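Dock pantoate; give full complex structure.
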Amino acid sequence: MLCYKRREDIVRFLKIVKAQGKKLGFVPTMGALHDGHMSLIAKSKSENDLTICSVFVNPTQFNHQEDFDKYPISTTDDLLKLNHNACDIVFLPEMIDIYPNGTKNTKLPSLGKITSVLEGAHRPGHFDGVAQVVGLLLDIVQPDHLYMGQKDYQQALVVQKLLEVEKRHNTALVVCPTQREADGLAMSSRNIRLSEEQRTHALGLSKALFYIKSNYKLCSNEQLIEHVSQLLREIPELKLEYVSIASQAQLEPLTSSETHEAAVALVAAWVGNVRLIDNILL
Ligand code: PAF
């Protein structure tokens, strides 16, 4: 596995590789890698000649300094996992490589309503930071395919919008299914911050989504949301932010299950001081 730290070095190397007509798959991450990330690496490897994974904890997408400070860093372990899963190239940039002019001097794309609902409403500015860093990483890597997990459903919609609006990247987004632990918990880098007890409480999120999926169209969407919200509110240490049944395309709330629009159920909650999100296609 090749490991690049400096922007100019990876750019030089990728120029040569691209001139050879090789297809590039890119998996951007913030590290603390788990099997969910490895499923993205595997998918990329099956569809490209070379797979690149970046590990960069992007400060501009955190709303709380504390969340940024506590974000798990496990670079040695990440490199071992990537090597074990035969990732071809890892990019470990420093701040200066991503933000040579500082974080404030990059123009933010205007992506409309998709950045301000649900996650956007609870984490103002979060998607500006995501769109900013993904755009900058794509400028460097210029991949043919970009791989992201469905666990961050809204993030994938935002990035799709970014690609459509900016048109500066010749990259196709591939969204891969959420990977779950055997008991249903969606894999997330944040899970390692949960105590054993909190981890049991966190299972409420996936259980709520599975309940909605099993009962979708049997009850009204309001009833489903009301019922699971009530159950989630009874779980100790769990602070619910939202449960929503929304259109898959725009995340518009769907109040009626009569609609023929494809729907997704989404949930966000704090368990202790760890914020978790999950979703399921209906
Ligand atoms: O999903 C993530 O890990 C991050 O939001 C991403 C896409 C790597 C941007 O920092």
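Observed: The chain has two domains: 2-176, 189-281.
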